[in-house]
Design a protein that fits this description.
By secondary structure, the chain is an all-alpha fold. Helices cover 68% and strands 0% of the residues.
């Protein structure tokens, strides 16, 4: 959980630098777990927008950690646009 909090708190919109493998995958794992939990809660409460609101809130840190991971691999962050 510390890796997730580090990305969200310290490197929210930091597109410079590097993200090690563990930082990237721990952020992705906890992000996935939170999304699943929020989806279930949204279904139970009949308010499906909880997941969407959370997804928009972590969109910038998710993109930033992806770009920093690409930098760690020696590639340009612009390669992330190819996935779109």
């Amino acid at each position: 959980m510390n890796w997730y909090l580090k990305v969200v708190k310290e490197h929210y919109a930091d597109f410079k630098g590097r993200a090690r493998r563990r930082e990237y995958w721990m952020f992705t794992l906890f992000n996935l777990i939170i999304m699943v939990v929020l989806t279930v809660i949204g279904i139970l409460l009949r308010f499906p927008f909880i997941q969407t609101i959370y997804g928009l809130a972590v969109l910038v840190p998710a993109l930033a950690v992806c770009v920093r991971r690409l930098h760690d691999l020696g590639k340009s962050g612009w390669l992330l646009l190819l996935s779109l």
